[in-house]
Amino acid sequence: MPNQIRIAVSKGRIYKQALPLLAQADVEPLDDPETSRKLILDTSDPDIKLVIIRATDVPAYVAYGGADMGVAGKDVLLENERLPVYEPLDLGIARCRMSVAGLPESRPLGRRMRIATKYVNSARKYFASQGLQVEIIKLYGSMELAPVLGLADAIVDLVDTGATLMANGLVEKAHIMDISSRLVVNKASMKTKHARMSQLIEDIKQAVEVEQ
Ligand code: ATP
Ligand code: PRP
Predict the structure, then answer these.
(1) What is the domain range of residue 68?
(2) Which residues line ligand 2 (CB under 6 A)?
(3) Are residues 100 and 90 in the same domain?
(4) For residue range 153-195, what is the model confidence (pLDDT) as tens digits?
């Protein structure tokens, strides 16, 4: 399938927010991943397929050529820095921020603190940049519980409206970085399917400019 282009996207917010951008690039899925069990979706362009995978798996699929391109949050890309992909476009979707959060009455961020997070790489780099040596506990979800149950002094997690922190009695202690989703591209595909890939990236870029 030398002319086929596979685009990896995750279900949920990335899929929903990428859809209008893809539509402006004339790529419209023929199935809805929320109702279909299919993991490879045909689109209005017979040469373009959407591959539905977990958000955290997008960099691996794109780096190893399972997909030619994909959409991944900057948070996920920073945890997979060693996987070689091009990152040609900030799509400006799935916007949020990465923050340190904890109980309101907890002591200020300091050395030897225990930090629970899914974002081990980013957390380690952030605390190192602050000159703080911390112990990091890797979790896979429900990070907000960690300070509440005494597992950690603070967490590093994503925050958008702040509703999840508030519902669990936590407050933001520090802003680490703003996050949005990026278009990532397989390096080999960029060479072997150059004309089609460049055109698609250009079309998506124009769609992003229209949306902003
Ligand atoms: P996985 O299923 O692989 O564990 P996930 O549950 O984090 O991933 P989503 O919740 O769909 O997947 O999040 C996908 C991306 O959307 C994240 O990587 C992040 O960049 C962004 N994101 C996460 N939470 C929010 C939020 N509350 N508001 C806006 N964007 C968010
Ligand atoms: C993300 C993130 C926070 C929440 C923040 O979770 O991990 O828990 O959003 O958003 P808020 O500030 O608007 O409350 P998500 O909704 O993706 O759930 P999941 O990580 O469990 O999939």
Answers:
(1) 5-94+180-211
(2) 141, 157-164
(3) no
(4) 999 999 999 999 999 999 999 999 999 999 999 999 999 999 9
